[in-house]
Write a structure and sequence with these properties.
By secondary structure, the protein is mainly beta. Helix content is 9%, strand content 60%. The chain has a ten-stranded antiparallel barrel with strand order 1-2-3-4-5-6-7-8-9-10. β9 and β10 form a beta hairpin.
Length: 162
């Protein structure tokens, strides 16, 4: 309980002083498990269907984009990602890869890269297990559009699994 209180307090403080957002973290979900989370200006929802496929949705405030994406597990540590950004006439398909690995007994690290016709994104981070259904996420995110300003920085979020 003390870890949870400390984690929530730290999360609220960092969110209050940070304006950088990131993509949804790479989560490890059990079959038929659902995750809902937030990270600065980001909201996401994911559900794992079977052993190898996770379907997700994310909405990012700073860029105004919404994504629907799928993650295909090639192994325990490697995933393929395919998604659609913005659901409009200007929507864009993207693809990428993600790798994960155990950093400590209650900490999993990850890195992901996705790219579409007009942007690329890189993210590296770690998920810290605070309880059976709650994780704290710390990450670095870099978003590089072909037009407009690049966005990069640190992010902090939480994931609730059920």
């Amino acid at each position: 309980m003390k870890k949870l209180m400390f984690g929530c307090t730290l999360l609220l403080l960092l969110l209050a002083f940070s304006s950088i957002s990131s993509a949804a973290p790479i989560n490890h979900l059990a079959d038929t498990q659902t995750a809902i989370g937030f990270d600065n200006n980001l909201f996401y929802l994911e559900h794992k269907f079977g052993d190898n496929f996770t379907l997700g949705y994310q909405s990012v405030d700073w860029s105004g984009h919404e994504d629907i994406y799928g993650q295909f597990a090639f192994s325990d540590n490697l995933r393929g990602i395919i998604g659609n950004r913005n659901f409009s006439p200007s929507s864009e398909l993207y693809a990428g890869l993600a790798v994960t690995g155990q950093l400590a007994s209650q900490c999993t690290g990850y890195a992901s890269f996705v790219s579409g016709n007009s942007f690329s994104e890189f993210q590296a981070g770690a998920n810290f297990k605070l309880s059976e259904n709650l994780e704290l996420n710390v990450n670095y995110h870099s978003y590089t559009p072909d037009w407009g300003a690049n966005k990069s920085g640190a992010g902090l979020g939480a994931t609730f699994k059920f």
